[in-house]
Every structure is written in C-alpha cells, then in structure tokens.
Write a structure and sequence with these properties.
This protein has 287 residues and is mainly alpha-helical. It contains ten helices and three strands; from the N terminus they run ααβααααββαααα. It folds into three domains: 40 residues; 128 residues, 2-Layer Sandwich (Bacterial polysaccharide co-polymerase-like); 85 residues, no CATH class. The longest helix has 58 residues.
Length: 287
C-alpha cells in the first residue's frame, strides 16, 4: 500500500514539473479547434419519412429472395429503384441544382455526389416506413433535394400502380375469355350428351315412363286385335265347314254361287290376319 502511494506521489510531481508545457499545448489545440469551427460552413439537414407499400411495389423485386423481410435488403432495393441515372438527373433538375454551366464530366461527378449524399434508411419498428435525408450548406438546396426525391418516388409509385392495374385488367380479361370458351365447349358437350342419351337421363324419367306405358298400351291393343282376328277366323272356318257339310241339304237354285261365296269368305279371312299383324309397331314386336 505504501509503495502505491509513493508511486502516485511521484507521478503527480512529474506532472507538475511539466505543467506549463502541457498548458501551452492545450491552449494551442483549443485555439486551432475554435478557429476551425469558426470558419466551418453550417450544414443543414432536411429529412422526410415516406410510407412504401412493400407488398405491391417491392414484392416483384424481392420475389425469390430468402430475406424478403430484412430491412437492409428493403433499403438496398429502394436505393436501386431510386438511384438510377435517369432518376438522379430528374432529381437534380427538380431541385434546381446548377447543371447547365458544367460539362459532362462535372455533371457526372455532381450526380454521383448527389447519389452519395442522399440517405435512405429503414425504420426498425415498421418495415414499410423509410427515411430520406440530405445535408447541404444551403438550407433551400437541402429542402429542394428531399422534395425532389419524394416527387420522383411518388411518380415511380404511381407508374407501378398503374402498371399493376393494367396487368390486373389484362389478366382478368384473358381469364374471362378463357372461361367463356370453356363454357361454350361445356354447353356443346352437354347438348351432344343429351342428344346421344335421349330418354335415358334422370330428368327425362317421366317422359320415359310415359313412353313405355304408351308402347305397352299399343302392344296390348294390337294383341287384342290379333286375338279377335284369330277367334273370328276360327268361327268363320267352323261356319264354312258347316256350310260345306250341309250344302247338299240346302235347297238353293245356284249351289255353285254359294260355294264361291264361302271360298271368297275363306280367302278374306286368310288375308285379314297378316293385316292385323302388320299393324303392330316394330318396337312392340321386339318386346
């Protein structure tokens, strides 16, 4: 403990020995710093916050990236979107920067300086808020540059929105045309199916049953007519046999004419059965 105390006393004595030199150097440094600060120009900073719909505007550019929600990646995409040569020249023109009295090299250097001096940063709390800042010795220039950046950004957003709207309308129109073609093809297929399966579909069950009943009635009527014709033929055949058997006992003036009449009646009966049979519909015969 005593050694540490002696060491501290030794260092204090050494410092006091060179105190005037240290004070002189301190004054020189302070005077130089004050002089530098006195002649340094004032810098003015203009800053604005802008909301970006990252889901619609930046999503196509971020599609396929693994860090789609990373703030640094969003800021990088924003800079690529804003800091193109055409946009920077437009910002310089809107901010009324002096570009007329400069050659191509000086104008290019000024555009590059503008690109480096405009700061775009993201907000950690909200990924859709971005800060745009610019520093300049001229307060009007700082304000005009930030306003110009906001104007160009607004135009880019509107152009992207209109392009998305046109693309959406075109997509919807193509989908409607495709659905219309599919609907027409489906209608044609339905009509062809109904034509090929007429009478067999569930919604045609009533008509089908009615048609079956009609065919059944026609079949029964034809069958009844056939039975009546067969019975009549048998009756006429019996009557003809009776006429032939008793022809000798009947006293007619012309027995030959009676035989001819019986033969004619027999011939008519032979023809009558095929006539009834032919009147039966073909579908009923199949049944």
């Amino acid at each position: 403990m005593q050694e540490q105390y002696n060491d501290l006393i030794f260092k204090v004595k050494g410092t006091l020995k060179y105190k005037w030199i240290a004070l002189f150097l301190a004054w020189i440094i302070c005077i130089a710093g004050w002089t530098t600060l006195m002649f340094m120009p004032n810098k003015y900073k203009s800053e604005a916050q802008v909301h970006v719909d990252t889901k619609s505007m930046l999503q196509p550019l971020l599609h396929g990236l693994a860090v789609e929600q990373d703030i640094r990646e969003l800021v990088s995409v924003m800079k690529q979107l804003m800091f193109t040569q055409q946009n920077l020249e437009k910002i310089a023109a809107l901010a009324k920067l002096n570009t007329t009295n400069k050659n191509d090299i000086q104008r290019y250097e000024m555009i590059q300086d503008l690109k480096k001096d405009v700061y775009i940063s993201g907000m950690k709390q909200q990924s859709d808020l971005f800060s745009i800042a610019y520093e300049s010795v001229n307060p009007e220039e700082a304000k005009n540059v930030v306003l110009a950046v906001l104007t160009v950004f607004s135009e880019q957003t509107q152009a992207s929105t209109l392009k998305d709207a046109d693309s959406s309308q075109q997509f919807i129109g193509n989908q409607l045309k495709e659905l219309e073609v599919r609907l027409r093809n489906a209608e044609k297929a339905r009509e062809n199916f109904k034509r090929l399966n007429f009478g067999l579909l569930p919604d045609q069950e009533h008509n089908q049953m009615l048609r079956v009943h009609q065919l059944d009635d026609q079949f029964n009527a034809a069958k009844l007519a056939l039975n009546e014709a067969e019975a009549e033929r048998k009756v006429l055949a019996i009557q003809m046999q009776e006429v032939l058997a008793s022809s000798n006992e009947w006293k007619y003036k012309d027995p030959t004419s009676k035989a001819s009449l019986a033969e004619t009646t027999m011939e008519e009966l032979r023809v009558k059965k095929p006539i009834y049979y032919r009147n039966i519909p073909i579908n009923i015969r199949k049944l």
